[in-house]
Amino acid sequence: MYKAFTNATVLTGNETITGKAVIIDNNRIRAITDPGSVPSDARIIDCNNNFLAPGLIDLQIAGGGGYLFSEKPSADALKAISDSIVRTGTTSFLIAIPTNTFDVYSRVIAVAKANPLPALMGFHFEGPYISTQRRGAHFLSCIRHPGKDEVDALMKKADSTIRMMTLAPEICTREIIECLRSQNVVVAAGHSNATFREAVQGFNWGIQTTTHLFNAMSQMHHRDPGLPGATFETENIYASIIADGIHVDYSMVSIAKKLMKERLFLISDAVEESSQGANPHKRQKDRFTLPDGTLSGSVLSMLTAVRNCVLHTGIELDEALRMASEYPARLMNLNDRGRIEPGLRADLISFDRNFDVRFVVTNGELLNI
């Protein structure tokens, strides 16, 4: 059945349109047309002068709906996490799995393979091949140096569910990076103490992006610009950033945006409270921390990150939305989403001038919030 979304300011990713209707048929966008051309049998959804934008894409979120997935990998947890995330306007996401044991890796992979969901694209394995010096909230005991046989075995078990992996380029060989790339894994540099030269070498070997720019990495210095400097300097490298004003000061988000332009994209890096293990996440008013106060995750949704960019960094709304939809889609080579365009997947979000979600469309299904 056709659905027609009318009376909206439509931010397609390419332009801002008013006075038009967006038509979807099942799970695809069919047309952007004059209201008078809407099929007579279409269900009309009045957007009440709110915004209509592409569904948002989060490439790093560890939990939601009361569950941290790596702590409680189950079908119920996966469904609750997905439902919670989608209702905030994020219609595609990678579940982040922080550095953990291979037993946990096996369990999360098994659950995801047995319980496919429309919004879940797979996993972002954040570790285990990271720097002990820049581990942040990750388990020290689980950090490893990679071996080719071990990586091959993990990829075989994952069976294409691992879509991204964050690693430290200074401890990984070219063979490891090329092995991951050959399995269609997007390789990210992060939780790394790499020098500028080590980072550039990793980029030359096939690393494509940088994980949560400025956080848990070597810092910029005039004698060695480190991983951030290498990211700025290497023109084909993307970077994610956490725009909550806590992980990164808003002025630094603005500086990074001016330098990187379309290569900078948003992530939430959101977690959930946890009570098990050596490093439980505790929710504070505006962040998550470990018991010792170490910053361990955000309370962001992707739409809140968009709002923060608009209100605090001077980034225009249409560009902030591209940072949360089109640019992560480009990095992941997702040609079917990230814009409102005929033929693409029907993933949409409607929100008002206060950035409150009015409704979400995920894979053609309308969710009233």
Describe this structure in words.
There is one protein chain. This protein has 369 residues and is an alpha/beta fold. It folds into two domains: 84 residues, Urease, subunit C, domain 1, CATH 2.30.40; 276 residues, Metal-dependent hydrolases (TIM Barrel), CATH 3.20.20. It contains ten helices and 23 strands. The strands form five sheets. Strands 8-11-12-13-14-15-16-17 form an eight-stranded parallel sheet. A six-stranded mixed sheet has the order 3-2-7-21-22-23, with no helix packed on it. A hairpin with a 5-residue loop joins strand 21 and strand 22. Helix 3 runs parallel beside helix 4, helix 5 packs across helix 6 and helix 8 runs antiparallel to helix 9. The longest helix is centred in the N-terminal third of the chain and has 13 residues. The two termini are 21 Å apart. The relative contact order is 0.17.
Number of helical segments with 4 or more residues:
10
Largest sheet features? 8 strands, parallel
Number of domains: 2
Taking pLDDT < 50 over at least 5 consecutive residues as the criterion, the unreliable ranges are none
Question: Beta-strand level of the residues, as a percent range?
Answer: 25-35%
Number of strands: 23
- Computed Rg: 20 Å
Return the CATH architecture of the largest domain.
Answer: Alpha-Beta Barrel
Report how far apart the termini are: 21 Å
The spatial strand order of the largest sheet comes to 8-11-12-13-14-15-16-17
The helix-and-strand class reads alpha/beta
CATH homologous superfamily designation of the largest domain = Metal-dependent hydrolases
